[in-house]
């Protein structure tokens, strides 16, 4: 029998590819979007993950219709590019509220039902930027580092209730995320940061636009959904990025920062 699955940020990119794949496999898939959406096999909910009340209403609707939530996939996220120095309070709040607190809000609203069921699966989308601090994407990395720590602690707390927690760490993928990234004009205009930022951003966008198909990530998430004993961490990236993850774990901190600086030409 198909599982009841909630996916946030399901109107595009990873979320849409994953929702479509899981729906085609016979699962009952609820996808969220800030704006109204219509899907043939996906039951869309209008939800703002930054708003705990909005999240609660959406989860209650699923419980009313299905009686349970088997899997939640916290995918909703945004990107803001620019120097940490010039990031505005509004940009910082939007980045952290969407990427991190959105994940927290969803997990908190589904956990009471999963605990009652004594079963459930939580899959949180992190990033390669949740393993290493990416230059000019510092608050994006901070939001993903937060998801990593939150998910690890959560896994320890809820495993005894039959609930598993996994994190997925994508590298570069070709999605609409690149075009929707908000880039800091103040950073571009600054004499010290501007040239460096433009070089790094060019590399970032080139890597993303030449990245993997979102269907690759959807396949990994399907495996986690189907697995009897899912792992905690799933990096999904090309060979070069997998190597960078390995280097991050073995190189002294200052050496790895120099690797990042040379790669992104900052």
Task: Outline the structure in words.
The protein has ten helices and nine strands. With 266 residues, it is α/β, with parallel strands linked by helices. The radius of gyration is 18 Å and the shape is globular. It has helices at 13-24, 52-66, 89-117, 138-158, 177-180, 185-189, 194-209, 214-226, 239-250, 253-264, and strands spanning 4-7, 28-33, 42-46, 71-74, 80-81, 120-125, 163-170, 182-183, 233-236. Strands 3-2-1-4-6-7-9 form a seven-stranded parallel beta sheet, with helices on both faces.
Q: What's the short story on this structure?
A:
With 266 residues, this protein is an alpha/beta fold. The protein contains 10 helices and 9 strands.
């Amino acid at each position: 029998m198909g599982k009841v699955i909630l996916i946030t940020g399901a109107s595009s990119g990873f979320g849409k590819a994953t929702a479509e794949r899981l729906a085609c496999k016979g699962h009952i898939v609820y996808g969220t979007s800030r704006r109204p959406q219509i899907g043939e096999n996906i039951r869309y909910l209008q939800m703002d993950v930054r708003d705990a009340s909005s999240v609660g209403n959406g989860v209650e609707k699923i419980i009313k219709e299905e009686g349970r939530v088997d899997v939640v996939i916290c995918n909703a996220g945004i990107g803001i590019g620019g120097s940490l120095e010039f990031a505005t309070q509004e940009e910082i709040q939007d980045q952290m509220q969407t990427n991190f607190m959105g994940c927290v809000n969803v997990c908190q609203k589904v956990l009471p039902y999963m605990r009652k069921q004594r079963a459930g699966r939580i899959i949180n989308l992190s990033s390669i930027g949740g393993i290493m601090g990416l230059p000019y994407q510092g608050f994006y990395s901070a939001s993903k580092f937060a998801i990593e720590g939150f998910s690890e602690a959560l896994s320890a707390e809820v495993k005894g209730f039959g609930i598993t927690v996994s994190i997925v760490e994508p590298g570069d993928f070709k999605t609409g995320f690149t075009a929707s990234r908000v880039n800091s004009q103040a950073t571009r205009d600054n004499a010290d940061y501007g040239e460096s930022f433009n070089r790094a951003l060019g590399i970032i966008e080139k890597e993303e636009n030449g990245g993997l198909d979102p269907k690759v990530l959807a396949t990994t998430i399907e495996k986690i959904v189907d697995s009897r004993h899912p792992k905690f961490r799933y990096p999904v990236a090309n060979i070069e990025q997998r190597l960078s993850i390995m280097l991050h774990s073995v190189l002294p901190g200052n050496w790895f920062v120099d690797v990042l600086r040379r790669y992104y030409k900052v």
